[in-house]
Amino acid sequence: MGLLTNVALASLKLLAGIVGNSYALIADAIESMADILGSAVIWGGLHIAARPADQNHPYGHGKAEALAASVVALMVLAAGIGIGVKAVDQILSPHHIPATWTLAVLVLVVIVKIGLFRIVRKAGKESGSGAVHVDAWHHWTDAMTSLAAFFGILISLIGGPGYERADPIAALIASGVIVTNGILLFRTPLRELMDEQPGDIVGKAKTLSAAVPGVVIVEKIGARTSGGRHWIDMHVWVDPKMSIVEAHELSHRVKDAVRSRMPSVVDVLVHIEPAR
User: Which CATH number belongs to the domain containing residue 215 in this structure?
Assistant: First the structure.
């Protein structure tokens, strides 16, 4: 849905920007073109991430989601910098006042993009996909850049001669929004690629494990994320007089307790230690 919508909107904005003499609208179209490639990259990343685990990838292919999201974030940064450079050039050189009807195009774009942002964000929350989350906020950025372009064109039209630079200034503001968003979007996949500890997952898993009868204390616990799924390792203290068989059965009860309440957890590795 995002890919097809971006193709239609990018074409509309580019044509309107060229015919209507609006660089802010052309800059917005360039950002939408980045959205097209970004949606394609996200789609490919999700397709690879959905592959089952194999001998060479025992933890699955979920990291492909984070890699795809990183590529999209870098694309957003590159688009923002490129738009900013061109906007400065347009500010320094003379240009025409945009056509009035370009405002209607931008209103349509903002409405569609905000709607698409809500749909994709909901899909990201339901699937737990960081890549889809990044794609959703990419749509939000596009909506905000279109809004900036709207006000830039509006000011240039109201002000008339002497206010022509309001259009590229809006494009420059939009480039700042795009660059900032690109930096923020890069944080989510970077955390996953660097195996940053998901605190909410760790805290809940520790609470569930500690509640299992026979567990004295959960000493250490760590988790890694891959494609919205989690793998957990923990050290569990038990009665030192417990037999190997009993300890083994307890470790399975701990694992079952966590997985039954946390669907995103694929596996729990329990290391048994005698309570001191």
Answer: 3.30.70.1350
